[in-house]
Structure formats: C-alpha cells, structure tokens
Specification:
Helix content: 40-55%
Structural class: alpha/beta
Strand order of the largest sheet: 3-2-1-4-5-6-11
Number of helices: 12
Radius of gyration: 19 Å
Order of helices and strands: EHEHEHEHEHEEHEEEHEEHEHHHH
Largest sheet: 7 strands, parallel
CATH topology of one domain: Rossmann fold
CATH superfamily of one domain: NAD(P)-binding Rossmann-like Domain
CATH architecture of one domain: 3-Layer(aba) Sandwich
Strand content: 5-15%
Distance between the termini: 41 Å
Bound molecules: NADP nicotinamide-adenine-dinucleotide phosphate
Shape: globular
Number of strands: 13
CATH class of one domain: Alpha Beta
C-alpha cells in the first residue's frame, strides 16, 4: 500500500516507517525539517516530503494515491513558541490532513493522540471513559483534534484514534534519556513521594498497535488507550532504569511545591523571549500526574498485545543509549 506517515522522522514516526517499509509498503514520510534523519529514511527507501502539515497545498500533494494515513506530526517538544503554535499544528494541521485524506478517499486514517487527554487520572487505572481533562496546551490541542477526526468519521471516513501512554525505547531522544542520564550519575532527585503512577509504552508495542489499527474493519470511529501491560510508580521506574544500566542509584526526596511555582514562573519569563525554559510545568507534572490505564478495549477490539515488558524494554533502551554514545559504556 501507499502509506503517508506525518512526523515520519520523529521518534515514533521513524520506528513506524521502518516497520512499514520492511513489510513492503511504499511510505511517504512528511516532516518539517531536512536533516540526518530524513536522509536516513530515504536510504531505507521512503519518499520524504519536507514541509508543514499546516501547508494545505503541500498536504494535498502528499496525499495523491495514498491509501492509509498515520498522522503523527505534532507540536510536542517545542518550548520556545507561543501556545497558538500548538493550536495551528495540532488542530489546524490535523484538519488539513483529514481534509486531504477525505478528498483522496483514503481507506483508513489513524490519528495519534495522547493518553494526556485524560490529564491526571483520579481513579487509576483509567480507561477511555475516564474524564477528559487535559492539563496543558499540548494535551489540550491534541484533544481538540479528536472531535475533528470524529467529524470525518461521521462523514464516512474510516478513522481510528490511538492515545499512547509514555513512549520509550531505542531512539528516544528526550524523556527517558533524561531519566537514564540522571540515573547514570548515581543520584536521582525525586520531587514528591515518588509514588505517582506512570504508564510506559515500549516503542515496538506501539508500532504493533498502529499496524493493527490499519486493518480494515478494526476500530473504526473508536479511540484506544495504548500502553504496556503494567504501570509503575515513578520511583520504581527509576530503580528499573538503574537495574537496566547495572548501576546503583541514590534517590533523595524533596518537596514538589517549590518546583511547581518555579516551573510556572520560569516558563512565563522565557516564552516572550523565545528562550527554551530549563524547567516548565509539563516537566514538573511528571512527578505528580497519575497516568495508569486499562488497555482492555484495545486488547479486545484491536487484538493488541504488548509483547515487550518493562524490564526488557529498559534493558534494550539502556543498551541503545550506550551503543549510540548517549551514555558512557
Ligand atoms: N513521546 C510520547 O511519550 C508520546 C505520548 C503520547 C502521544 N505522543 C504523540 O505521538 C506522536 C509522536 O511523538 P514522538 O514522541 O515521536 O514525537 P517527535 O519525536 O517530536 O516527533 C514529532 C514529529 O512531528 C514533526 N512535526 C512537528 N511539527 C510538524 C509540522 N508542522 N509539520 C510536519 N511535521 C511536523 C516533527 O518534525 P521536526 O522535528 O522536523 O519538527 C517530528 O518529526 C505525536 O503525535 C505525539 O503527540 C507522544
């Protein structure tokens, strides 16, 4: 099939593109910037289109002959941009991709949302019926695109929404790398009691979910939480990373409230000057936002089965960070 993957050079996009190419599909990867990763994708055999999902004409061109769309492109890691940028890319961009997909009569449209649409889960584990209460502009804009996807489903397009939990694995440039880096230093400052629940999602498990969602007749018009089998307390996650690296780690605890205040103040100060803040509320939320999910619906309806568990996932991830020189061997 001819498949469009928006955000194809991102952490998740790259893993999905590789799998689709290995399975013999023709992949068009759309991405914002030219770089080493786009070159790598071309070497694998993907067709790469550079440009923004906010560019309607370009999105239309990319869509020619496409049968399936995986829409992953998102403003996500950008910090030194106004909040309106998140709206433009995550909501406006999604609408553009949907519109072009509709015109082109694609057979399946998979929208990559986030478990973050549920914000802090009050009664963990939450399922898809847990209250939607995004906690920041990223989560809010990811959620605002969901009704737009449903609008096209009602028009007649086959759509599936996936809400992934915290994705990690080889290739993760940021969140888990920060955890591993701090663990490797031998000391991990824990703000709060460390008992916050966190639901990891190994990258290969998520790629499997994308492939399942592509199948005809599966999940149409539905939203699914996608995560690993088990969730953990964040302190256990840190200890798991230490085991994977085979290093001892000391975890001193500090109060969280001062960091919350500092996060808000620093972000407010940095934004107008387009400075990337060293600490910001979304990062602080890691210590206090419960995210634990029941993935029963995806198992029952999509046949989803997370094959890689946490210890194995962390081991593979640690090995990758060392092999690629992110961490000392
Ligand atoms: N990572 C997680 O834990 C997590 C959890 C739940 C959901 N998600 C969702 O999963 C998806 C993939 O996440 P990820 O961690 O793989 O993110 P990522 O590495 O930041 O990838 C996002 C990709 O989207 C591209 N992109 C951004 N703005 C774009 C635009 N205007 N037009 C075209 N491409 C654009 C980026 O390209 P450039 O780098 O060239 O700008 C990047 O390649 C996202 O939709 C995210 O919201 C992620």
């Amino acid at each position: 099939m001819r498949i469009l993957v928006t955000g194809g050079t991102g952490f998740t996009g790259k893993a999905l593109v590789r799998k689709l190419l290995n399975d013999g599909h023709h992949v068009v990867a759309m991405d914002n910037k030219e770089g080493l990763k786009t070159q790598e994708l071309r070497e694998w055999g993907a067709e790469v289109v550079i440009g923004s999902v906010t560019d309607r004409e370009l999105v239309r061109k990319c869509m020619k002959g496409v049968e399936v769309v995986h829409h992953l492109a998102a403003a996500f890691r950008e910090l030194n941009v106004p909040n309106s940028y998140y709206e433009e890319v995550n909501v406006g961009g999604t609408r553009n991709v949907l519109e072009a997909a509709w015109e082109n009569k694609v057979s399946k449209f998979i929208y990559c949302s986030t478990c973050g649409v549920h914000g802090n889960v009050d009664n963990p584990p939450g399922d898809e019926t847990a209250p939607v209460k995004p906690a920041d502009y990223y989560q809010r804009t990811k959620y605002e695109a969901e009704p737009v996807v449903q609008e096209y489903f009602r028009k007649g397009m086959k759509t599936v929404i996936l809400r992934p939990a915290a994705i990690y694995g080889p290739g993760d440039p940021e969140r888990f790398f920060m955890i591993f880096k701090r663990v490797a230093s031998g000391r991990f400052l824990m703000f709060g009691n460390g008992k916050t629940l966190y639901h990891p999602l190994y990258i290969d498990n998520l790629v499997d979910a994308f492939l399942l969602a592509m199948q005809p007749g599966k999940g149409d018009g539905q939203a699914y939480l996608i995560a690993d089998e088990e969730y953990v307390q964040i302190e256990d996650l840190v200890r798991g990373a230490a085991r994977a690296l085979n290093v001892p780690v000391w975890i001193p605890h500090l109060p969280i409230w001062p960091v919350i205040v500092v996060g808000h103040v620093v972000e407010k100060f940095c934004k107008p000057f387009r400075i990337t803040p060293p600490i910001f509320p979304r990062r602080v939320d890691w210590y206090r936002q419960n995210r634990a999910f029941n993935i029963g619906k995806a198992k029952r309806e999509l046949g989803y089965k997370p094959l890689v568990g946490l210890d194995e996932g962390l081991r593979r991830t640690a090995e990758w960070y060392r092999r690629e020189g992110y961490l000392r061997a």
